[in-house]
Amino acid sequence: MGDRVFVTGGTGFVGANLVRLLLQEGYTVRALVRAGSDRHNLQGLDVELVEGDLNSPQLTTALAGCRYCFHTAAHYSLWQRDRAQLHQSNVLGTRNLLQSAQNAGIERTVYTSSVAAIGTPGTGQPVDETFQQAPEDLIGAYKQSKYWGEQEAKAAVQRDQDVVIVSPSTPVGAWDIKPTPTGDIIVRFLERRMPAYVNTGLNLIDVKDVAWGHLLALRKGNTGERYILGHQNLSLKEILDRLAQITGLPAPQTTVPLWLPLGVAWIQERLLAPVGFQPSVPMDGVKMSAKVMYYDASKAVTELGLPQSPIDAALRDAVQWFQARAHHRP
Predict the structure, then answer these.
(1) Residue 151 predicted with pLDDT over 90
(2) For the NAD-dependent epimerase/dehydratase domain, which residue ranges apply (predicted)?
(3) How far apart are CA 328 and CA 330, in angstroms?
(4) How far apart are CA 175 and CA 45, in angstroms?
(5) 325 in Cβ contact with 317 (< 8 Å)
């Protein structure tokens, strides 16, 4: 208690919830923020802000004096044009951060990976930490970058660095500032811009439980192990029905065949984007929706004591947060 911790990605969804938990638990927080970044999620908090980015050669200096590090920062994009930036931030940036943490004498780093790096067998069956889809079969540059970022964490462990890997599934709750794809679904639902849905499924978890999963990994996790931070597997239809119960708004009843959004995405991203049109539907996002993404978080529950708060409460938190801020997609 009172230890100084270094947090990357503190302005983001998971990071903002983690920072609040760390402060609540008595830690002193130093957060890495990019110049010109949106810092609303940290506004009013007793946090030391250090400007820089993951590829900065000055990261060792920024980390000096901290005991632990939480590396939650990542570039998120499903656009194929962002492949180079995803590699730069999520792979090379992770390498630099971990090396800097070792140079600065950080005792333990918790690295935030994702179930995106694990993949899915495509059968609809939940998988645990022992499953690994071949990296070349992971859909899209984002998932592949998270896989290779995780390999950087494992390589650091091989160099005798104390790193624990956590892999959140689909967090839901407050402070989803961008928002995430799942937050975007909630926003679309609230704004009555979701007349239909695709047949897919996700593993949801309260984002506050994800924050606790990070802290529990610091306190109890085994070096080099990865822990899926997840809770309940739900079809998109079940999620929309729960949103309907929470809000009183009607849930969409019509399904969309996959070929329709995939065709729209292909036209927008391949034909119109090169001539200046701003596409609205990424092909990789549509391809991902074809796979049911169910996971088993038993390991984190058993070994770490990961909380399993009711998903309806997390959805209600998200709805209230978006409504309070009249959040709209860019």
Answers:
(1) yes
(2) 5-230
(3) 6
(4) 14
(5) no
Q: Cα torsion for 15, 5, 70, 187, to the nearest 10°?
A: 0
Distance (Å) of CA 2 to CA 11, 23, 68, 135? 21, 9, 12, 40
Q: Which of 8-17, 107-116, 163-172, 177-186 has the lowest mean pLDDT?
A: 177-186
- 93 closest CA partner among 109, 108, 107, 74: 74
For all residues of the chain together, what is the average pLDDT?
Answer: 91
Q: Enumerate the domain spans of the chain.
A: 4-175+204-236+294-312
Confidence class for position 99, pLDDT limits 50, 70, 90: very high
Alpha helices in the chain, H assignment, sequence order: 13-24, 59-63, 83-87, 93-103, 140-158, 181-190, 207-220, 236-247, 259-266, 283-289, 298-299, 311-324
Task: Please check whether residue 116 is in contact with residue 146, taking contact to mean a CB–CB distance below 8 angstroms.
Answer: yes
What is each CA distance from 111 to 3, 42, 207, 221, in whole angstroms?
18, 20, 16, 12
pLDDT surpassing 80 at residue 173: yes
Spelled out in words, what is the top-level CATH class assigned to the domain 4-175+204-236+294-312? alpha beta
What span, in angstroms and rounded, lies between the C-alpha atoms of 289 and 275? 27
- pLDDT for the residue 256: 74
Q: Is 27 helix (H, G, I), strand (E, B) or coil?
A: coil
SS3 48: strand
List, as one string, the DSSP characters of 264-328: HHHIIIIIIGGGT---SS-HHHHHHHTS---B--HHIIIII------HHHHHHHHHHHHHHTT--
Count of CB atoms situated within 10 Å of the CB of 61 = 14
How far does the chain reach from its first CA to its final CA, in angstroms? Answer: 40
